[in-house]
Amino acid sequence: MGEKIHPVILCGGSGTRLWPLSRKAYPKHLLPLVGERSLLQETAMRVADTTRFEAPILVSGEEYRFVTGEQLREIGIVPRDILLEPVGRNTAPAVTVAALLLHDTSPGTLMLVLPSDHAIADHAGFLAAVDRAAPAARAGSLVTFGIAPKSPETGYGYIHAAAPVEGIPGVFRVERFVEKPDRTRAEGFLADGGYSWNSGMFLFDAETYLAEIERLAPEVLIYCRKAVESSVRDLDFMRLGSSAFSKAPAISIDFAVMEHTDKAAVVLADMGWSDVGSWSALWDTGKKDASGNVLRGDVIARDVRGSYIRGDGHLVTAIGVADVVVVVTKDAVLLVSKDRVQDVKQIVENLEHDGRPEATLHVMVHRPWGGYQRIDAGQRFQVKRITVKPGAKLSLQKHMKRAEHWVVVRGTARVTVGEKTFTLTENESTFVPVGVKHRLENCGTEPLDLIEVQTGAYLGEDDILRFEDLYGRAV
Question: Pick from 176, 187, 184, 228: which is nearest to 206 by CA?
């Protein structure tokens, strides 16, 4: 089999077409959309075989660093590194910083680039495709994985395969890459038989990739190298140099390298792949009932056909509809015809334009210490349920425009208010006046739940001044 392969998992993207589940503050790769685990966790488990793969490198947005680390801990995977992008610059810079890290520490290694937000139903088929691609990658090809098309899909790019790579079965030279076509062209591609869907997964030698990015997109390499050289360690993360990385061109690996290199090759694969790019894609891959419906959560459907209906925390009922998507969360309802799901991103654009929090935040907001759920809000008040993980504690902080009332409903809290530190247990409470330093800590072995009532003239999350913080957030 040769040396083990280094997975590189790209944790970018927002997945606006999967609103209201996927939102900017908690995008689709962090969500359990096709199973019990999140798409990120499924991706990491896909390359968890230590006889084939080294520990993965993740490239993540800075704002998702703690939940990314926590999700890996939940499935028992220790990454080699989590690289933090100060800003999103598309896939070419993300792949380049990982390649630089690998080239400096493990020269001659193969890197397997995987998006974190795709689903693959056939794990054995995935591994077989990687095995077919590895000899070509070791021989100097930049190998991508083409998915055998099942329909004239207009939401994917296509790859046109050319002649086989001599001496390496199952690998073909790439004739050309094609951007997302209209339906007529897509139907022609299927009739031709030489086209496959572009999966966005790659396997290549880090040194070969760096040589090609230097030749074809030198600015990407220049600024990525500076970003790696100016990176700093922060807890379990590697923060890329912000000034340098921000100057790297925002460009995909396809545009920067794959569409121009003469080293591109493709392995044709049938692995039950989906990019989970829309609600109709989740209907395509989901387990259907006798009427062709995918039902998730507490759903009652009567005389419903060909639909995707999901209730997260609510009973959802439907009668006499067909080919629709219904998604209900605690603060939003989506109803859309299945053939219009690509337009959901327009709803998100409207919400962002109007400054509505539903575009960005869920009712449950995740933090490195746990999270909080908004319960109610009105003139000069807001109510939250706060959950703190065992052993975790919030920053030492104060607010200049609001006071807080805390009531413990489960667990044991160690509380600091001003100069006093004391313990609260179930049914006990305290008050934090405006402008007073305070801190909340879970000193027990079970989750700590409390109800927080905020009162004041301004209740925004930016009214916070931190003095100490375990998680390296701004103080």
Answer: 228
Q: Is residue 1 scored above 60 in pLDDT?
A: no
In whole angstroms, give the CA distance from residue 134 to residue 137. Answer: 5
* Span between the terminal Cα atoms of the chain, in Å: 50
Give the contacts of 316 (CB within 8 A, at least 6 positions apart).
Answer: 297, 298, 299, 300, 309, 310, 326, 328
Q: Is 76 left (phi over 0), alpha (psi -120 to 50) or beta?
A: left
Give 393's DSSP letter.
Answer: B
Angle 91-105/206-216 helices, nearest 10 degrees? 130
Cβ neighbourhood burial of 149 (10 Å; 0-12, 13-18, 19+): middle
List residues bridging with 377 in a β-sheet.
382
The helix, strand and coil proportions of the chain, stated in percent and rounded to the nearest 5, come to: 25, 35, 35
* SS3 at position 90: coil
Phi-psi region of 375 (alpha: psi -120 to 50; beta: other; left: phi over 0): alpha
Asked if CATH classification 3.90.550.10 holds for the domain at 6-274, the reply, yes or no, is yes
Percent of the chain with pLDDT over 90: 82
pLDDT tens column, 387-416 = 999 999 999 999 999 999 999 999 999 999
Q: Which of 211, 222, 213 is nearest to 244 (CA)?
A: 222
pLDDT digits (tens, 9 = 90+) for 91-126: 999 999 999 999 988 888 999 999 999 999 999 999
Residue 221 pairs in a beta bridge with none
Q: How many distinct helices (H) and strands (E) make up the chain?
A: 11, 28
Which DSSP string corresponds to 168-216?
-TTEEEEEEEEPPP-HHHHHHHHHHS-EEEEEEEEEEEHHHHHHHHHHH
Per residue in 166-206, pLDDT (tens digit) is 889 999 999 999 888 888 888 888 888 889 999 999 999 99
Q: Which of 323, 328, 318, 322 is CA-nearest to residue 339?
A: 323
| Residue 212 region by backbone torsions, left for phi larger than 0, else alpha for psi between -120 and 50, else beta | alpha
Across the range 267-284, mean pLDDT stands at 93
Question: How many residues are present in the chain?
Answer: 475
Q: Which residues lie across from 98 on neighbouring strands? A: none
pLDDT at 2: 61
Residue 410: Cβ-neighbour burial (10 angstroms; 0-12, 13-18, 19+)? middle
Instruction: Assess contact for 122 and 46: CB atoms under 8 A.
Output: no
Question: What are the extents of the domains in the chain?
Answer: 6-274, 289-352, 364-468
**Model's pTM, two decimal places?**
0.89
Q: DSSP state, 231?
A: -
Q: Which CATH superfamily is domain 364-468 in?
A: Jelly Rolls (2.60.120.10)
